[in-house]
Amino acid sequence: LILAGLAAAPGRPRSIPTLEGLSEPFRRRLNHALSAVVPYSNRLEQVRRSGVLRIGTTGDYPPFSHRVADDGPLSGADVDLGRLLAQALGAEARFVPTSWPTLME
């Protein structure tokens, strides 16, 4: 909602979003969420410096990410896209096993 004002169509005047009219609990949650935002350039530079793109996946969600055998390699659309992205960045794709509750950690 707040960021919607920043996405005005090109050539149209942009309104500056404000917090007026938002409840205090919502303002606190919004502030907390925005404080966790990391600029992409920092993460991208970290990937480029390390040469490794870490990709979290559960490996149990076909056709996106799954294993044909319990100890087999990962496959699926997310795995293919992760490898292509790593290749485009000149990095190694490193798949990190995760679970649904911890996927965003």
Summarize the structure in words.
The structure is a single chain. The protein has 105 residues and is of the alpha+beta class. It has a domain at 40-105: D-Maltodextrin-Binding Protein, domain 2 (3-Layer(aba) Sandwich). The protein is built from 3 helices and 5 strands. It has helices spanning 24-35, 40-50, 77-89, and strands at 52-57, 60-61, 65-67, 74-75, 92-97. Strands 2-3-4 form a 3-stranded antiparallel sheet, with helices on one face. The chain has a two-stranded parallel sheet with strand order 1-5. The model is unreliable at 1-9 (pLDDT under 50).
Question: Layout of SSEs?
Answer:
Blueprint lengths: L23 H12 L4 H11 L1 E6 L2 E2 L3 E3 L6 E2 L1 H13 L2 E6 L8
Going across the biggest sheet, name each strand in turn: 2-3-4
Shape summary: extended
Q: Unreliable segments (pLDDT under 50, ≥5 consecutive)? A: 1-9
Annotation field: number of helices: 3
Q: Can I get a quick summary?
A:
With 105 residues, the chain is α+β, with helices and mostly antiparallel strands.
